[in-house]
Protein backbone atom coordinates (compact mmCIF):
# COMPACT_ATOMS: atom_id res chain seq x y z
CA UNK A 1 0.00 0.00 0.00
CA UNK A 2 2.80 2.34 0.95
CA UNK A 3 4.62 1.57 -2.30
CA UNK A 4 1.50 2.35 -4.29
CA UNK A 5 1.19 5.76 -2.63
CA UNK A 6 4.87 6.51 -3.33
CA UNK A 7 4.46 5.55 -6.99
CA UNK A 8 1.46 7.86 -7.29
CA UNK A 9 3.29 10.82 -5.75
CA UNK A 10 6.33 10.23 -7.98
CA UNK A 11 4.14 10.05 -11.08
CA UNK A 12 2.44 13.33 -10.18
CA UNK A 13 5.80 15.11 -9.73
CA UNK A 14 7.09 13.77 -13.05
CA UNK A 15 3.92 14.88 -14.85
CA UNK A 16 4.41 18.43 -13.55
CA UNK A 17 7.98 18.44 -14.82
CA UNK A 18 6.93 17.23 -18.25
CA UNK A 19 4.22 19.88 -18.47
CA UNK A 20 6.70 22.60 -17.59
CA UNK A 21 9.17 21.23 -20.12
CA UNK A 22 6.53 21.29 -22.86
CA UNK A 23 5.45 24.82 -21.88
CA UNK A 24 8.96 26.12 -22.50
CA UNK A 25 8.67 25.31 -26.20
CA UNK A 26 6.39 28.41 -26.61
CA UNK A 27 8.08 31.22 -24.69
CA UNK A 28 6.25 34.45 -24.07
CA UNK A 29 6.95 37.39 -26.40
CA UNK A 30 7.32 40.59 -24.45
CA UNK A 31 7.03 43.87 -26.38
CA UNK A 32 9.22 46.47 -24.76
CA UNK A 33 8.95 50.21 -25.28
CA UNK A 34 12.19 51.97 -26.30
CA UNK A 35 14.06 53.08 -23.20
CA UNK A 36 15.05 56.35 -24.84
CA UNK A 37 12.45 57.75 -27.34
CA UNK A 38 14.66 60.74 -28.16
CA UNK A 39 17.46 58.41 -29.24
CA UNK A 40 15.10 56.50 -31.59
CA UNK A 41 13.82 59.74 -33.11
CA UNK A 42 17.38 60.90 -33.70
CA UNK A 43 18.13 57.60 -35.44
CA UNK A 44 15.13 58.05 -37.75
CA UNK A 45 16.29 61.54 -38.64
CA UNK A 46 19.74 60.23 -39.49
CA UNK A 47 18.20 57.63 -41.82
CA UNK A 48 16.13 60.29 -43.58
CA UNK A 49 19.12 62.54 -44.07
CA UNK A 50 21.01 59.67 -45.69
CA UNK A 51 18.27 59.13 -48.30
CA UNK A 52 19.55 60.19 -51.75
CA UNK A 53 16.56 62.12 -53.08
CA UNK A 54 18.36 63.47 -56.16
CA UNK A 55 19.60 60.02 -57.08
CA UNK A 56 16.10 58.62 -56.68
CA UNK A 57 14.62 61.28 -58.99
CA UNK A 58 17.38 60.78 -61.52
CA UNK A 59 16.81 57.03 -61.58
CA UNK A 60 13.06 57.37 -62.09
CA UNK A 61 13.43 60.04 -64.77
CA UNK A 62 15.90 58.00 -66.83
CA UNK A 63 15.14 54.32 -66.24
CA UNK A 64 11.36 53.99 -66.11
CA UNK A 65 9.14 53.56 -69.13
CA UNK A 66 6.59 56.05 -67.89
CA UNK A 67 6.23 59.81 -67.43
CA UNK A 68 9.18 62.04 -66.78
CA UNK A 69 8.90 65.01 -64.49
CA UNK A 70 11.08 68.06 -64.16
CA UNK A 71 12.77 67.37 -60.82
CA UNK A 72 10.19 69.22 -58.77
CA UNK A 73 8.59 66.43 -56.78
CA UNK A 74 8.85 66.82 -53.01
CA UNK A 75 9.32 63.28 -51.74
CA UNK A 76 8.91 64.39 -48.15
CA UNK A 77 5.36 65.49 -48.85
CA UNK A 78 2.92 62.66 -48.17
CA UNK A 79 -0.50 62.98 -49.80
CA UNK A 80 -3.71 60.99 -49.77
CA UNK A 81 -4.74 58.78 -52.69
CA UNK A 82 -7.10 61.44 -54.06
CA UNK A 83 -5.66 64.92 -54.42
CA UNK A 84 -7.46 68.07 -55.49
CA UNK A 85 -4.29 70.17 -55.45
CA UNK A 86 -3.47 70.99 -59.10
CA UNK A 87 0.14 71.70 -58.23
CA UNK A 88 1.05 68.33 -56.76
CA UNK A 89 1.93 64.89 -57.97
CA UNK A 90 1.75 61.38 -56.59
CA UNK A 91 4.13 59.26 -58.61
CA UNK A 92 4.07 55.61 -59.67
CA UNK A 93 5.98 54.42 -62.75
CA UNK A 94 3.81 52.41 -65.13
CA UNK A 95 2.55 52.47 -68.68
CA UNK A 96 -1.13 51.90 -67.98
CA UNK A 97 -3.19 55.07 -67.94
CA UNK A 98 -6.88 55.86 -68.21
CA UNK A 99 -8.79 59.11 -68.21
CA UNK A 100 -10.73 59.97 -65.08
CA UNK A 101 -12.59 63.24 -65.63
CA UNK A 102 -9.88 65.86 -66.20
CA UNK A 103 -7.22 63.93 -64.30
CA UNK A 104 -5.23 60.78 -64.98
CA UNK A 105 -5.13 57.62 -62.90
CA UNK A 106 -1.92 55.60 -62.73
CA UNK A 107 -2.41 52.23 -61.03
CA UNK A 108 -5.12 53.74 -58.76
CA UNK A 109 -2.92 56.71 -57.83
CA UNK A 110 -4.36 60.05 -58.91
CA UNK A 111 -2.05 62.63 -60.39
CA UNK A 112 -2.26 65.98 -62.08
CA UNK A 113 0.12 66.77 -64.90
CA UNK A 114 2.58 68.82 -62.84
CA UNK A 115 5.50 67.39 -64.77
CA UNK A 116 3.98 69.03 -67.85
CA UNK A 117 3.69 72.61 -66.56
CA UNK A 118 0.84 71.99 -64.09
CA UNK A 119 -1.94 72.12 -66.71
CA UNK A 120 -4.19 69.39 -68.02
CA UNK A 121 -7.24 69.92 -70.21
CA UNK A 122 -8.69 67.40 -72.67
CA UNK A 123 -10.86 69.96 -74.51
CA UNK A 124 -8.62 72.87 -75.63
CA UNK A 125 -5.45 73.02 -77.72
CA UNK A 126 -3.81 76.05 -76.07
CA UNK A 127 -4.39 75.95 -72.32
CA UNK A 128 -1.34 77.98 -71.27
CA UNK A 129 -2.30 81.55 -72.27
CA UNK A 130 1.36 82.49 -72.47
CA UNK A 131 2.00 86.11 -73.49
CA UNK A 132 5.01 86.12 -75.81
CA UNK A 133 6.05 89.50 -74.37
CA UNK A 134 6.58 87.80 -71.00
CA UNK A 135 8.46 84.85 -72.45
CA UNK A 136 11.80 84.73 -70.68
CA UNK A 137 12.68 81.03 -70.94
CA UNK A 138 15.87 79.88 -72.58
CA UNK A 139 16.34 76.17 -72.20
CA UNK A 140 17.44 73.09 -74.09
CA UNK A 141 14.96 70.23 -74.55
CA UNK A 142 16.20 66.75 -75.43
CA UNK A 143 13.97 65.39 -78.20
CA UNK A 144 15.05 61.77 -77.81
CA UNK A 145 17.72 59.66 -76.14
CA UNK A 146 18.08 56.11 -77.41
CA UNK A 147 20.38 55.29 -74.48
CA UNK A 148 17.35 55.46 -72.21
CA UNK A 149 14.87 53.99 -74.67
CA UNK A 150 13.45 57.33 -75.82
CA UNK A 151 12.96 57.20 -79.57
CA UNK A 152 11.27 59.22 -82.32
CA UNK A 153 9.17 58.40 -85.37
CA UNK A 154 7.94 60.30 -88.39
CA UNK A 155 4.17 60.88 -88.17
CA UNK A 156 3.70 59.23 -91.61
CA UNK A 157 5.35 56.41 -93.53
CA UNK A 158 5.63 58.42 -96.76
CA UNK A 159 6.55 62.09 -96.55
CA UNK A 160 5.72 64.80 -99.05
CA UNK A 161 5.30 68.42 -97.92
CA UNK A 162 2.20 70.11 -99.36
CA UNK A 163 2.34 73.38 -97.44
CA UNK A 164 4.91 74.78 -95.05
CA UNK A 165 4.71 76.71 -91.80
CA UNK A 166 4.17 80.46 -92.12
CA UNK A 167 1.81 83.07 -93.60
CA UNK A 168 -0.71 81.60 -96.03
CA UNK A 169 -3.78 83.11 -97.67
CA UNK A 170 -3.61 86.19 -95.43
CA UNK A 171 -3.36 84.24 -92.18
CA UNK A 172 -0.80 82.24 -90.21
CA UNK A 173 -0.43 78.55 -91.05
CA UNK A 174 0.78 77.09 -87.77
CA UNK A 175 1.98 73.70 -88.99
CA UNK A 176 3.32 71.65 -91.88
CA UNK A 177 0.93 69.84 -94.25
CA UNK A 178 2.05 66.35 -95.30
CA UNK A 179 0.43 64.57 -98.22
CA UNK A 180 -1.34 61.24 -97.67
CA UNK A 181 -4.14 58.99 -98.85
CA UNK A 182 -7.28 58.71 -96.76
CA UNK A 183 -6.84 55.82 -94.34
CA UNK A 184 -3.04 56.04 -94.10
CA UNK A 185 -1.80 55.38 -90.52
CA UNK A 186 -0.78 58.33 -88.33
CA UNK A 187 1.89 57.74 -85.67
CA UNK A 188 2.92 59.46 -82.47
CA UNK A 189 6.17 61.34 -83.04
CA UNK A 190 7.56 60.86 -79.51
CA UNK A 191 6.66 59.17 -76.22
CA UNK A 192 3.83 60.91 -74.39
CA UNK A 193 0.15 61.01 -73.39
CA UNK A 194 -2.87 61.75 -75.55
CA UNK A 195 -4.20 65.00 -74.07
CA UNK A 196 -6.88 66.01 -76.61
CA UNK A 197 -9.04 63.86 -78.89
CA UNK A 198 -11.60 66.10 -80.55
CA UNK A 199 -13.34 67.41 -83.67
CA UNK A 200 -13.18 70.95 -85.07
CA UNK A 201 -15.62 71.42 -87.93
CA UNK A 202 -14.11 74.69 -89.17
CA UNK A 203 -10.47 73.87 -88.54
CA UNK A 204 -8.58 70.71 -87.63
CA UNK A 205 -11.43 68.26 -88.26
CA UNK A 206 -10.74 65.09 -86.27
CA UNK A 207 -7.48 65.74 -84.44
CA UNK A 208 -5.20 64.78 -81.55
CA UNK A 209 -2.89 66.69 -79.25
CA UNK A 210 -0.18 64.52 -77.67
CA UNK A 211 1.80 65.85 -74.73
CA UNK A 212 5.38 64.56 -74.64
CA UNK A 213 7.81 63.85 -71.82
CA UNK A 214 10.02 66.86 -72.54
CA UNK A 215 7.08 69.31 -72.40
CA UNK A 216 6.54 69.66 -76.16
CA UNK A 217 3.16 68.89 -77.69
CA UNK A 218 2.37 67.63 -81.19
CA UNK A 219 -0.92 68.13 -83.04
CA UNK A 220 -2.28 65.86 -85.77
CA UNK A 221 -5.15 67.32 -87.80
CA UNK A 222 -7.70 66.34 -90.51
CA UNK A 223 -7.84 62.66 -89.52
CA UNK A 224 -10.60 60.40 -90.82
CA UNK A 225 -10.70 58.16 -87.73
CA UNK A 226 -9.57 58.25 -84.10
CA UNK A 227 -7.98 55.13 -82.62
CA UNK A 228 -6.15 56.27 -79.45
CA UNK A 229 -8.02 57.57 -76.40
CA UNK A 230 -7.50 60.55 -74.10
CA UNK A 231 -5.17 59.63 -71.23
CA UNK A 232 -3.56 56.81 -73.18
CA UNK A 233 0.20 56.64 -72.87
CA UNK A 234 1.87 56.20 -76.26
CA UNK A 235 5.36 55.44 -77.45
CA UNK A 236 7.05 56.93 -80.49
CA UNK A 237 5.59 55.15 -83.50
CA UNK A 238 2.35 54.06 -81.81
CA UNK A 239 -0.73 54.12 -84.02
CA UNK A 240 -2.98 57.14 -83.32
CA UNK A 241 -5.53 57.07 -86.14
CA UNK A 242 -6.18 57.26 -89.87
CA UNK A 243 -5.38 60.22 -92.10
CA UNK A 244 -8.09 62.04 -94.00
CA UNK A 245 -9.53 65.39 -95.06
CA UNK A 246 -11.97 66.40 -92.29
CA UNK A 247 -12.54 69.95 -91.11
CA UNK A 248 -11.23 72.88 -93.12
CA UNK A 249 -9.27 70.95 -95.72
CA UNK A 250 -8.82 71.08 -99.49
CA UNK A 251 -7.79 67.42 -99.76
CA UNK A 252 -6.35 64.46 -97.82
CA UNK A 253 -3.32 65.50 -95.79
CA UNK A 254 -1.93 65.56 -92.26
CA UNK A 255 -1.66 68.96 -90.60
CA UNK A 256 1.26 68.49 -88.19
CA UNK A 257 2.20 71.00 -85.47
CA UNK A 258 4.89 71.32 -82.81
CA UNK A 259 4.05 73.44 -79.77
CA UNK A 260 5.72 74.56 -76.55
CA UNK A 261 3.46 75.95 -73.81
CA UNK A 262 0.77 76.40 -76.42
CA UNK A 263 2.95 78.36 -78.87
CA UNK A 264 3.38 76.77 -82.31
CA UNK A 265 6.75 76.88 -84.08
CA UNK A 266 8.03 75.62 -87.43
CA UNK A 267 8.33 71.79 -87.39
CA UNK A 268 11.13 72.07 -89.95
CA UNK A 269 13.25 73.57 -87.18
CA UNK A 270 13.89 69.97 -86.16
CA UNK A 271 12.70 67.92 -89.18
CA UNK A 272 13.96 67.32 -92.69
CA UNK A 273 10.80 65.84 -94.16
CA UNK A 274 12.33 65.26 -97.60
CA UNK A 275 15.01 63.01 -96.06
CA UNK A 276 12.74 61.62 -93.37
CA UNK A 277 15.15 62.68 -90.63
CA UNK A 278 15.15 64.47 -87.31
CA UNK A 279 17.93 67.02 -87.78
CA UNK A 280 18.85 67.50 -84.12
CA UNK A 281 18.65 65.69 -80.81
CA UNK A 282 18.28 68.83 -78.69
CA UNK A 283 16.13 71.91 -79.30
CA UNK A 284 16.92 75.37 -77.97
CA UNK A 285 13.72 77.03 -76.71
CA UNK A 286 13.95 80.82 -76.63
CA UNK A 287 11.97 83.90 -77.63
CA UNK A 288 13.43 83.92 -81.13
CA UNK A 289 11.82 80.56 -81.85
CA UNK A 290 8.44 82.33 -81.68
CA UNK A 291 9.39 85.55 -83.48
CA UNK A 292 6.48 85.16 -85.90
CA UNK A 293 4.02 85.25 -82.99
CA UNK A 294 5.64 88.32 -81.45
CA UNK A 295 5.53 90.10 -84.80
CA UNK A 296 1.87 89.26 -85.41
CA UNK A 297 0.74 90.25 -81.91
CA UNK A 298 2.72 93.46 -81.89
CA UNK A 299 0.72 94.86 -84.79
CA UNK A 300 -1.72 97.47 -83.51
CA UNK A 301 -3.50 98.17 -86.81
CA UNK A 302 -4.79 96.06 -89.67
CA UNK A 303 -5.29 97.25 -93.25
CA UNK A 304 -8.50 95.72 -94.59
CA UNK A 305 -8.03 93.47 -97.64
CA UNK A 306 -10.51 91.84 -100.01
CA UNK A 307 -12.43 89.09 -98.21
CA UNK A 308 -11.73 90.41 -94.70
CA UNK A 309 -14.49 90.63 -92.12
CA UNK A 310 -14.49 91.43 -88.42
CA UNK A 311 -14.48 87.76 -87.45
CA UNK A 312 -11.49 86.81 -89.61
CA UNK A 313 -9.53 89.88 -88.44
CA UNK A 314 -10.26 89.11 -84.80
CA UNK A 315 -9.10 85.50 -85.19
CA UNK A 316 -5.92 86.56 -86.93
CA UNK A 317 -4.81 88.81 -84.06
CA UNK A 318 -6.24 86.73 -81.24
CA UNK A 319 -8.69 89.40 -80.10
CA UNK A 320 -12.47 89.66 -79.86
CA UNK A 321 -14.80 91.30 -82.38
CA UNK A 322 -16.18 93.51 -79.61
CA UNK A 323 -12.68 94.83 -78.90
CA UNK A 324 -12.24 95.86 -82.56
CA UNK A 325 -15.64 97.56 -82.72
CA UNK A 326 -15.01 99.37 -79.43
CA UNK A 327 -11.54 100.60 -80.43
CA UNK A 328 -12.78 101.88 -83.80
CA UNK A 329 -16.22 103.22 -82.80
CA UNK A 330 -18.06 100.95 -85.21
CA UNK A 331 -20.68 98.20 -84.92
CA UNK A 332 -20.83 94.64 -86.21
CA UNK A 333 -23.05 95.91 -89.04
CA UNK A 334 -20.47 98.41 -90.31
CA UNK A 335 -19.34 97.73 -93.90
CA UNK A 336 -15.54 97.47 -94.11
CA UNK A 337 -13.72 99.22 -96.96
CA UNK A 338 -10.66 97.80 -98.71
CA UNK A 339 -7.61 99.77 -97.54
CA UNK A 340 -9.29 100.88 -94.31
CA UNK A 341 -7.05 100.82 -91.22
CA UNK A 342 -8.57 99.19 -88.16
CA UNK A 343 -7.06 99.34 -84.71
CA UNK A 344 -6.99 95.84 -83.26
CA UNK A 345 -5.03 96.45 -80.01
UniProtKB/TrEMBL annotation:
UniProt cross-references to Pfam families, sorted A to Z: LysM, Peptidase_M23
InterPro entries: Cell_wall_metabolism_enzyme (IPR050570), Dup_hybrid_motif (IPR011055), LysM (IPR018392), LysM_dom_sf (IPR036779), M23ase_b-sheet_dom (IPR016047)
Protein name: Peptidoglycan DD-metalloendopeptidase family protein
Cited SMART domains: LysM (SM00257)
PANTHER family in alphabetical order: MUREIN HYDROLASE ACTIVATOR ENVC, PEPTIDASE-RELATED
Family matches, as Gene3D superfamilies: Glucose Permease (Domain IIA), LysM domain
LysM domain: residues covered: 300-344
PROSITE patterns: LYSM
Amino acid sequence: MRSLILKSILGFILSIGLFQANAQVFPKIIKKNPTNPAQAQERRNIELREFDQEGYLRTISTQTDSLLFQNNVNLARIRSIISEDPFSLNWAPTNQLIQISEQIQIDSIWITAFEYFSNWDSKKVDIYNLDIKNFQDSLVLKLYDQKYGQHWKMPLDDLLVNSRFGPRWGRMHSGTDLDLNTGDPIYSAFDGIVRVKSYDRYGYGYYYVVRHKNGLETLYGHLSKHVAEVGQEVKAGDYLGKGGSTGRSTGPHLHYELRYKGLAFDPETVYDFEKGELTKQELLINKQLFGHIAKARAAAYHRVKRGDNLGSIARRYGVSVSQITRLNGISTRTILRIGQNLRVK
